[in-house]
Amino acid sequence: MDIVKVIIVALIGVMVVVILKDIKPELALLAGLVTGAAILLMILTEITGIFEDFKTISEGAGGNNGTIFVTILKIVGIGYLTEYSSGICEDYGSQSIAKKVQLAGKVSIFAMAIPIFANIVEAIGAIMK
Predict the structure, then answer these.
(1) Where does the pLDDT of residue 1 fall: very low under 50, low under 70, confident under 90, or very high at 90 and above?
(2) Are 91 and 37 in the same domain?
(3) How far apart are alpha carbons 83 and 105 in whole angstroms?
């Protein structure tokens, strides 16, 4: 991934959004979404590589640890998606909705983390015996 290319696309997208905001606000929203989608497409190969590396690590761990790795990967994904969605809401003046999206993401992450906490407590209990 070439971060310079991502930055250039982002800056061009911001300029287009700023110009369109005064002329046609509905197109500014579309330009912002298209720019975000373009950036996501640019980093897709990097994301795919990360998933493959994570899969290799989880397979090497064996046992119940594979489930833990998958859960951690889902938690990270929820965090990124929540941040991205919240940022879009804030960009278009909906801070209240952005905060609700952040809260929903945090609750979802907490709910997914409970089995990991349970495994940790179980492991500590087994060590203590």
Answers:
(1) low
(2) no
(3) 8
